[in-house]
Amino acid sequence: MNSEPRGAVEPGPVVNVRTGGFGLGYRSELMDEISNAAYVDTLEVLSEQFFDSKSRELLRELAAAYHVVPHGTGLSIGSFTRPRPEYLQSIRQVCDEIGADYYSEHLCMTRAPGVNMGHLGPLLPSRASVDIVARNVDIVQNELGLPLALENITQPLILPSPDMSEAEFFSEVIDRTGALVLLDITNLYTNCVNQGRDPDAELSHMPLDRVRHVHLAGGRWRDDVLVDSHSHPVPDAVWELLKTVSSITRNFNLIIEHDQNYADPATIVSQVARAREVVLT
């Protein structure tokens, strides 16, 4: 396979990617129920699970039956060090296999020089961080030849910055890079609940015109902290925020994330039907 960069993805107000899909993150525990749900047309796959060539047969089977969108957790787009070439090559192979027209990742840091942090670390909202992210996004989009969609993450605390707020930082990164947005509505809601902020006000500061992908999930309470555990049904407050987003734009793929507690797969999968109803009516 040609490993040469494919050329820059130009920033602009409109990026033509396939949207309008509704589905879930691929989990083998849910596939029996998913296969019987005609309203599920899209699956999100974690790219790292398909880096091994032996797993590609399954990936091809999924892509033959569903619109498959790739998502990652290890790009570390906010790290001072540049994205690892071998990691980008593996991502590109996954994207090529399914004919992806964009790639999504978290706006965070997962690696320091020589160290894998093991979690999604928040970035200091500063001009210097914007510069680092912009450089790395440019590298990734040039290597993949695809737009990158950046996801807002949950943060255990607000990192103090003299430069800008968290929402301003996210918006400036998107403006500077021309990247798309993966809007995780549950992450936004979780941060607001834990930090005493208004979710509707926070949502109003997000660059919704760049949203092409949406995540919904359900968390749990641990003491007085709401944890984004992807283990419970989507809460009513998050459904209400989805209504707000859908009143502004419907130009996105929507994915229900559920990563543990599979005791009731029918209820988990049926949330996709509810998402369709919220967005399309």
TrEMBL record:
InterPro entries: MbnB/TglH/ChrH (IPR007801), Xyl_isomerase-like_sf (IPR036237). It comes from the Bacteria. NCBIfam families: PRK05409.1 (NF003818). This is DUF692 domain-containing protein.
